[in-house]
Amino acid sequence: MSFDFLDGCLEYLASQTEVVSFGLVLSRLLAENDLPPLGTASKVGLWLQLYKHSDVLMLASQDDPSSTAYIENLCSLSDSLPADSGFTQALEEALSTVDPTLIDYIDSSMLLCSNSLRFRKLNLLFCEHIFKSAERYRLFLAITSRRYNGGILAT
Fold first, then answer.
1. Can you tell me the distance from the alpha carbon of 78 to that of 45, in angstroms, rounded to the nearest whole number?
2. Mean pLDDT within 76-92
3. What's 155's DSSP letter?
């Protein structure tokens, strides 16, 4: 059984009320599901899927024109490939001479999901009337996403 990393990342983002780094999302996802670390191509491929997702806001931690241009080239590469082709193989070829600063750029990028995705992922469409404060909302999100650890909210 293979694990759907994109869906796992989206669910984790839906449970967070603050912006979180991609590196944190991925490390928590791997730890919660006892999965081995992703390879560079898989990690960048997942990041590109989140980058293109309409319900995810991605904020770059630094203004690096070379990394931004490289990311745009990777996006155009992924758009030009048919859906059933080996995107990971093409990505591995493109990343064969990757600069380590690009991986740092990707890991430090901050993510936030839309409220519509949050409501869909956590099945909260009928519960929004119960929120009286931001703290209750945060607690409710933590409980519904199974990230509530006996009084300590895992953020």
1. 9
2. 63
3. -
Please choose, from the candidates 76, 68, 58, 54, the residue with its C-alpha nearest in 3D space to the C-alpha of residue 21: 58
User: Domain extents for the chain?
Assistant: 5-125
pLDDT tens digits, 12-59 = 998 888 899 999 999 999 998 899 998 887 888 888 889 889 999 888
C-alpha count within 13 angstroms, C-beta hemisphere, residue 105: 19
Q: 38: how many CB neighbours lie within 10 A of its CB?
A: 16
Rounded CA-CA distance 4/46 in Å is 10
CA atoms within 13 A on the CB side of 6: 14
pLDDT in tens, 106-126: 888 899 998 888 878 776 655
Angle, CA of 59, 4 and 22, to the nearest 5° = 20
